[in-house]
Amino acid sequence: MTNTDLSAAMTSFADDAPQPPIDLLERVETRHRRRRRAQAAVATCAAVAVVAAGAGLLRPAPETAQPAGPPATAGFHLPPVPATVPSIKQAWPDAVVADAIANTPAGRPPLVVGVLDPTHWLVVSQPDSGKMWSYAVADRKYRPLLTHTGGAVFQESLAVTGKAIVRAVAAGDHTEVWMSTRDGGNDHRVGTVNQKDSNSLWADDTNVYLSFNAVPGIFRMSLNDGRAEPLDGFDQFRLDKSPWAFSDAGPLRNVVTGQEIAVARSTGAGPTAPAGAQPSSAPSGEETVECTPAFCVAWDAAKFVQRPDGSERTPVPYPGVEMIMPGHLLVSDEKLLVDPLTGVMGQAGPECRYEGYLAMSGGVIVNWRCKGSLSQIFLRTEN
């Protein structure tokens, strides 16, 4: 999706008031531009979803309900588009669909910032009212979770671990890290980092890892005592809601284990980014590559999928393809979702347009504009 298209979609979204949430899509566009600028040479998987040993796949539909492609084997599966494309819910039965989430109890448009589990989402108001709710998708009901202090909350600066909700908030020229239990209890400030404008974080039950817009590098803070320090060996790396850090024209590297995955690039006349993308920062003579540990999308004049080492390079036969980083998905022509590892294919609806995604711990929420209404679909990924 081009930046021009996304800006037009945002304008349409704003005009549809009170459809929620306006600022959500502004932040999606900002995230899209930031990823294209900082990740044009190589990007990481977003969301905690993928493990290097074997790429945690989105759960496919049972064989009887899945006409879209063959089961996963070696190589990529990019089948022709059938005459009748199954819905996303048919293709991925575990998908959770929320249509037109109502305004929060504060009377303001909602912003989804995380998930406690696939059917209970963390929601704040836009603008932030200082309260966070758990939203039950099936019942369409809000439950108060916590009254948070320290500043506005956004999805790129929040993570849900097995025990806690961890968030980074702006505090002048530094950043504060706060955490509570998953039920909203014991909300407290953990510590501060002397950097501002955090653009992503990832956390486990021991540490939180942060990166910032102004400077490369990753900071690690203990959730036990609040001590923060730059992470050795990650001076040129950034995060994108995942333990897998990326660097321009470099490898993927795991912030917990240090494991590294080299990323191969073909040489030629240089990267040619798709229409609307920001100029690539890849070295001259290298194509543009965006990667998860499972696979990469590479493009010069055409687009390909390949393994990070460059093997199994396969042309992408669909128009208008871009990568949705968590979950290994391609979105084609703003309507079609394809998992190239399995051939599973689905669409939100023939009259729906893709409007970006929200990466978060545990999965990805894909936004669709369907007949003027915002539909948000959560796709769970395996850890």
UniProtKB/TrEMBL annotation:
Q: Where is the composition biased (Polar residues)?
A: 1-10
Regions of biased composition (Low complexity) lie at 267-285
- For this UniProt entry, which segments traverse the membrane? 40-58
Q: Where is this region: Disordered?
A: 1-20, 267-286
UniProt keywords (A-Z) are: Membrane, Transmembrane, Transmembrane helix
* Entry protein name: Uncharacterized protein
Q: What is the lineage of its organism?
A: Bacteria, Bacillati, Actinomycetota, Actinomycetes, Micromonosporales
